[in-house]
Amino acid sequence: MRLVKIGIASVNTTVGAFHPNTDRVLALARKMAAENVTLAVFPEQVIAGYPAEDLVQWQGFIDHQWPELERFAKETAALPLVSIVGVGIAQQGVRLNCAAVVAGGRVLGLVPKEKLPTYNVFYEGRTFGHGQPGMAETHRGVPLGDYLFQFDFGVVAPEVCEDIWSADGPMRRRAYSGGELVVNLSASPFRLGFWDTRRELIATRASDHQVTIAYSNAVGSNDGLIFDGGGFINQNGRPVLETPRFQEGHTTAVVDLDRTLRLRTENTTWRVDRESWVSAGGKKVPTVDCTAAVKTQREKLSYPVPAHRSFFLPAPDTRRSARVALCEDVLDALSMGVGDYFEKTRAFKLFGIALSGGRDSLLTLLIAHRYAKRVRPDNPGSLIQAFYMPSPYSSQQTRDAAETIARELGVPFQVVSIEEAFERETAAAQQMLGEAKLTPITEQNIQARIRAQRMWNWSNSCGGLFLQTGNMSEKSVGYTTIGGDLMGALAVIANVPKTVVMFLLDYLQETTGYEGIRKVLAKPAGPELAHDQVGEEELMPFPILDACFYLHAGEKLTPSEMRTALTAMFPEVEAPRLGDYVDRFVKLFHQSIYKWVQAPLSLHIGNLDLDRERALQLPVVTGSGWLRDT
Fold this sequence. Notes:
Elements: E1 3-10, H1 18-34, E2 39-41, H2 59-63, H3 65-75, E3 82-91, E4 94-103, E5 106-112, H4 124-127, E6 136-139, E7 142-145, E8 148-151, E9 154-160, H5 171-176, E10 181-186, H6 194-209, E11 212-217, E12 219-222, E13 225-228, E14 231-235, E15 238-242, E16 249-256, H7 257-266, H8 268-279, E17 287-289, H9 322-345, E18 350-354, H10 359-375, E19 384-388, H11 396-409, E20 413-415, H12 419-433, H13 440-462, E21 464-468, H14 472-476, E22 490-491, H15 498-512, H16 515-521, H17 535-538, H18 542-554, H19 559-569, H20 575-591, H21 593-596
Parallel strand pairs: 1-2, 2-3, 8-17, 9-10, 10-11, 18-19, 18-21, 19-20, 21-22
Antiparallel strand pairs: 1-16, 3-4, 4-5, 6-7, 8-9, 11-14, 12-13, 14-15
Helix pairs in contact: 1-3, 9-10, 10-15, 11-16, 12-13, 15-16, 18-19, 18-20, 19-20
EC number: 6.3.5.1
Binding site for L-glutamine: 119, 188
InterPro entries: C-N_Hydrolase, C-N_Hydrolase_sf, Gln-dep_NAD_synthase, NAD/GMP_synthase, NAD_synthase, Rossmann-like_a/b/a_fold
């Protein structure tokens, strides 16, 4: 047996905080060494933080990383373990995103990332250069390129994030060249349902290539990207370990690398494929001999037996229901996004929320409170200030709902009327118009803008983080006010569809029993900027609105194709009415793009959102002729 204890670390980094980031890595490395870990795996770009975006173009940003990598090597020199650490380097005018192999006080090798994602939220092809098959260079005297690394426990094949997502990635040739333990360093953002996708992909790659895979993911949030952390160990297709998510730390497991080689001998398909690769001229990846660099201590390792002590019976099922998993993942992700933005910017002292008594501001408050409970468990409400700013159209029902939930959460609550200000601004606007009539929409927008202005004034004076509370569905059709409810320092639920907002609130009402949630849900959703406003009456039913958004913005369907899909999805709705909904949505969607680009930074939880700098990049000025049926 060749027993190897692997440690998977998730590290919460801040972009550009090189020294503190390295300190976090060092602390985890020391803990793992104390637990007899053989190989410590850290996330992608863990020294610099991720995503650094165009900061990579600054030479100083790159130059500051290498001394920290050397410091890590020096301070772990006495530890009997191998560490794989994410770092950025500059090589002959090209920036490379690398996995650094560190042991015995030295950097033993650098393996650059080959697959650079330039889609969705990723822009790596803009800043980094590609590693290449057969690349064999040196950087500061260290081997740089397409290499394997031989240690006293086996052959390690480092790679970085996207390399594992391509069937034509480096894993295949490295496995055929003798790589046994593939180490993937990742910074993969949280996306709804994506954890299962990662698990399946890693199991597939480990099975296809007959390797053991150790996968480590970043945790924490930088700007609007949220990283859920977690990691996997999978041996030749069999799951060994899944690590906790949404928390910094490390988890370990022992594998027998002899099992990986034995399964290769039994798998005739893998052997035949390797023979075909060799006969077709496949070039073997060279191996760097590191056996003299460090002597690992594996004598005390125990054979990895199942916790339930059976190789044939299934382990106890601890899986969450689909509903619980979705709700808890979204709430954990958004609370981490809010909290890390609050902490890492170092500009704020508390949160500020304008409560309307409606669903969106309620969910935003509950997310902020979820974070506050973690950092101030004895008095989480002290970290939040809530305001209710009634106008002539505000109902006693929404005021009571807002006051009730604030009281239940222990959040300071103030009522600050905007009625007099609304009258003054309405009169001033009418004076500016002269003979023209003030429109009802303008009257509504005046109320929203007064509230936003007051929140900004409060924020400027007390160092408060003004949270924007709008959802994705209403934002997609411009059911929001520039300078009003669209404003804030951080948009918490701007990428959460309205149907998901309501789903989460139903879940939270059941799990917490808060009376304030029940009171909010008892009233139809509406902005209360005019008499008896109901959002679904002014727009369309929210399930249909969200379906339109997904089909048009996500699936890129034309209006005629959307009608066909919606007819199948909502057979109870008359086809002409569905057609009207489609036409209304498409018109409002494309007319509202100019609003999106003025919205604050938002938190990302999926592949589809309206942040123009991250995901759905649409021109503000465009013709609409292509939307008409041909």
